Amino acid sequence: MNGAASRTAIVTGGARGIGAGIVARLARAGTSVAAIDLDLEALTDIVDQLRNRGGSAIAVQADVGDEHAVRNALNEIAQRLGPPAILVNNAGLARDMNIEDTDCSRKTGMPSSAWTSVRSSALALLSCVTRSSSARIGANGSFR
User: Fold this and answer.
1) Between vectors from CA 46 to CA 98 and to CA 22, what angle results, nearest 5°?
2) Domain ranges of the chain
3) Helix intervals (H) in the chain
4) What DSSP state is assigned to residue 141?
5) What is the DSSP letter of 99?
6) Which residues have CB under 8 Å from 112's CB, separation 6+?
7) How far, CA to CA in Å, does 25 sit from each of 9, 43, 137?
8) How far apart are CA 117 and CA 140, in angstroms?
9) 116 CB contacts (<8 Å, ≥6 apart)?
10) In this structure, how many other beta carbons lie within 10 angstroms of the beta carbon of residue 43?
11) Number of helices followed by number of strands (H, E) in the chain
12) What does the mean pLDDT of the chain come to?
């Protein structure tokens, strides 16, 4: 993570799983991290743990599928941590299903309508956050 120190990163879906791991890794590298998620309670727990270890992180609750909410979150992040240089689009949507409701002949285990919804949502989330943050990040970092 060379070059990440003393920069500001945004990580969507930062409250658990891979997102929480990315938030922790960036904070350990010296990056100021803004973690965005709908689950503010879980997000606050992650951020508090990182701060207790000397990391710089903030929790920002936002629906990354809502462009207005994303812009508000980006304004808050810029005010609290400075302009972002790194964006990790990690947020996603899952359709948990009972095993009885799945179709074992499909590799996903989901009906095609549920899989289509997950795929569409993932693209919308990615597009919304990237489009809203591109001007800020383009001036301070790069997309990779």
Assistant:
1) 80
2) 8-139
3) 17-28, 40-52, 67-81, 112-140
4) S
5) G
6) 106
7) 11, 15, 20
8) 34
9) none
10) 25
11) 4, 4
12) 80
Q: Is 24 helix (H, G, I), strand (E, B) or coil?
A: helix
Burial of 28 from C-beta contacts in 10 A (0-12 / 13-18 / 19+): middle
Q: Both tokens of residue 49?
A: 């743990």
**103, amino acid identity:** D
**CATH assignment of 8-139, given 3.40.50.720, 2.60.120.200, 3.40.50.970, 3.30.360.10?**
3.40.50.720
Indicate the angle between helix axes 112-140 and 67-81, nearest 10 degrees. Answer: 40
Taking only the tens place, the pLDDT of each residue in 53-94 is 999 999 999 988 788 888 899 899 999 999 888 989 888 766
Q: How confident is the model at residue 144 (pLDDT cuts 50, 70, 90)?
A: very low
